[in-house]
Amino acid sequence: MMERVGYRAAVNRQPQSLATCLTNLASLAGDVNLEHFRKGPLALVGIGASYQVALAGAHYLRQSGILALPLYPGEFETSDLSLYGGIILLSASGESAEILDAATYAAPLPRMVLCRDAVNPLAELCDLVIAAESGADNGASSTGYTGMLLAIGLLTQALTNRGIPAEITALPETVETLLRTNGPASLRAAERLALSTSIDVVGNGVGLATAGEGVILLREAARMPAFAWDTRNYLHGPMESQDQNTGLIAIGTGREPSIATEAAAFGSAAVLLANRQQTDTATLVVPVPHMSDPIARAIVDIVAIQMVVAEMQDMAGLTDTRFRYPQSDTKRRAAS
């Protein structure tokens, strides 16, 4: 069972967590028989934060030449299994009821699970178990999320017989620097966003997964209504609700900076998460280092958002709060 720590404590321990994950999974290609998963098509099935990992992972796998689809359990269980060459099930706890049901449905196919620890109910159902060993976390996932992102990144390198990119091996140091230097920008962004009635988070590619996870954190940790949008999709109507009462976090350096500028012109609390410096007062920039590797970028970007959310949580008087709506049917724990 996961050791629960406070939200900010979980965010701050990510350099240690990422270093542990790298050590545990660096030799993945040599330690695990991955042949059934090399060609695809692969279904990546997740829910909650793990679905955002599936979204980022499928993007990364497709860029690497393996057809992969991110699916919610309900979508997967209504599809024809003959479509897939293998299934990757994602659940940090290994106890998510919906993913356990998906694993049962996928019994005729090769099944792999990506999780936090190797001992859990889901691992018992699967042929291969890849455990990030990311350690202590909060209910609003920090280390669990970045650990699983790192795991899917390393898995992709193993499936394609490629070396681990330098940006990925340097992640513990990169994230440590970000945590040390981004505090003032995180606080300014939180102060700007905290009075919003709702926040839109916009990103493209792996940035859409980061937007989705950012929304989950805003809702769980700061109890802020929020929604995630694909960058280009946002331009086709959804942006019309932006005004002086709403907030925006735009992730990236493509169309996202101009979206933030346009929203700020209507009085929106606009924040840009990008490898840029502050050039005006209308759009507040939360700087992040440039990352060419999509998984490295996803990890760095979500840590920057986690830092902003930690400040918003404190401002709302919710420091280390627990969930108000515990569910009785979303986890199936192993018998003790």
Automatic annotation (TrEMBL):
Superkingdom, natural source:
Bacteria
Transferase as a keyword?
yes
Q: Which residues form the SIS domain?
A: 28-165
Residues of the signal sequence? none
Reactions accelerated catalytically:
D-fructose 6-phosphate + L-glutamine = D-glucosamine 6-phosphate + L-glutamate
Output the Gene3D superfamilies linked to this UniProt entry.
Answer: Glucose-6-phosphate isomerase like protein, domain 1
Q: Which UniProt keywords apply?
A: Aminotransferase, Glutamine amidotransferase, Transferase
According to its UniProt record, the EC number is: 2.6.1.16
Enzyme class name: transferase
Q: Provide one Gene Ontology biological process annotation.
A: UDP-N-acetylglucosamine metabolic process
The record's InterPro entries line, in alphabetical order, gives:
SIS_dom, SIS_dom_sf
* UniProt entry tagged with the keyword Transferase: yes
Which molecular-function annotations from GO does this UniProt entry contain?
carbohydrate derivative binding; glutamine-fructose-6-phosphate transaminase (isomerizing) activity
Q: What is this protein called?
A: Glutamine--fructose-6-phosphate aminotransferase [isomerizing]
Taxonomy of the source species: Bacteria, Pseudomonadati, Pseudomonadota, Alphaproteobacteria, Hyphomicrobiales
